[in-house]
Specification:
Oligomer: single chain
CATH class of the largest domain: Alpha Beta
Structural class: alpha/beta
CATH superfamily of the largest domain: Vaccinia Virus protein VP39
Radius of gyration: 22 Å
Number of domains: 2
CATH architecture of the largest domain: 3-Layer(aba) Sandwich
Strand content: 15-25%
Order of helices and strands: HHEHHEEHHHHHHEHEHEEHEHHEE
Low-confidence stretches: none
Mean pLDDT: 88
Number of strands: 10
Number of helices: 15
Helix content: 40-55%
Strand order of the largest sheet: 6-5-4-7-8-10-9
């Protein structure tokens, strides 16, 4: 990166998110031809000068393309923007960006304090009564739906790839712990039509999640409210922990994995899906970035495959298979 760009790096995300939030990428996606800054500003109800500068910045970031006709600039989406930044795209990442913009990034103002003290600042970021990440996020229905939307965005890109990596056809009944949005459960029953899934999550999350399934005659997905640290978990052939363990320290992970090992039937197992660091801890930028976000908000961390295997082995699981593609890794352990 050009050293000159460092001073602007914090602006890059905000430029991209602002354009998405205002609907720039959606307007251009729906248009059959490139549009001028004036036409985009009029269509979205913004100032012309403000939109002109935003569009030019997006061209500089290679989010938009621009061509000159009769001394006028005409703007269109790049393939990346059309696929991932337009809200109307099936693979849109807008909700994930919204979660980052509203919840994660403002908290980065506390990063220096977090690094000095070595512990999360969740109480000072939000309020003293908030004890953990999810209690902060789930205080309102809007927060729950925002998180559901972000998870849907993430699994739209990676869910099918992860599920297809491991042969789970022998497991008939699945329990998805903390799988409130239902996105992973939906993809699982599509991949394995003979399976059923129970989603086990906090009662307030389950209440909201059920609304997303109202009117659907899908009896293979059921819901049960509870706290998987405090309450008994439903019986299942396979327990899925998707983006769960990275939220907790090793002690809490061991508590949960040991509990699941005891709940497993012989031949049953647990599937852990997490952003994974490479063993040398020098690549995997996405996992390193996730680890910084976790440092600010939780007691958790991202781990290497060997660290995940050590936790599973210590809990009693055997025949551990590990798969790693793109951002996420999957580890399947059996009893």
């Amino acid at each position: 990166m050009n050293p000159f760009h460092f001073s602007f790096s914090s602006c890059y995300f905000q430029i991209m998110f602002t354009a998405a939030e205002l609907g720039v990428f959606d307007l251009l996606r729906e248009s059959e031809e490139p549009l001028t800054a004036e036409a985009i500003a009029e269509g979205l109800g913004t100032s012309r000068i403000g939109m002109q500068r935003l569009l030019e910045a997006c061209v500089g970031l290679k989010l938009l393309r621009m061509e000159m006709r009769d001394n006028k600039g005409f703007y269109g989406n790049t393939a990346l923007a059309d696929l991932y930044l337009a809200k109307s795209s099936p693979k849109s990442q807008y909700s994930f960006m919204q979660l980052d913009s509203e919840f994660y990034y403002p908290s980065f103002q506390n990063l220096a304090d977090v690094v000095r003290e070595g512990k999360n600042q969740i109480r000072s970021i939000h309020e003293s009564s908030v004890k953990d990440f999810f209690r902060a996020l789930y205080r309102s229905e809007e927060g729950i739906q925002l998180y559901f939307g972000a998870m849907k965005n993430a699994w739209t890109l990676y869910c099918r790839e992860i599920i297809s990596e491991c042969d789970l056809s022998q497991f008939r009944h699945i329990c998805d712990l903390g799988g409130g949005s239902g996105i992973f459960a939906e993809e699982h029953i599509l991949t394995y039509p003979n399976s059923s899934v129970t989603i086990f999550d906090l009662p307030e999350v389950v209440e909201k999640a059920k609304k997303n399934f109202e009117g659907l005659e899908e009896s293979r997905i059921s819901f049960q409210g509870g706290d998987f640290f405090k309450d008994s978990v439903p019986e299942a052939d396979l327990y899925i922990l998707s983006r769960i363990l990275h939220l907790w320290d090793d002690e809490k992970c061991m508590q949960l994995l040991t509990k699941l090992y005891k709940a497993c039937k012989p031949g049953g197992g647990v599937l852990v899906i997490e952003p994974v660091l490479d063993e040398e801890r020098v690549r995997s930028f996405g996992a390193h970035f996730a680890s910084i976000k976790l440092l600010v908000h939780t007691d958790g961390k991202t781990r290497t495959p060997s660290e995940h295997k050590a936790l599973l082995t210590a809990a009693g699981f055997k025949e551990i298979q590990a798969k790693h593609r793109s951002v996420y890794g999957a580890l399947l352990g059996r009893k």
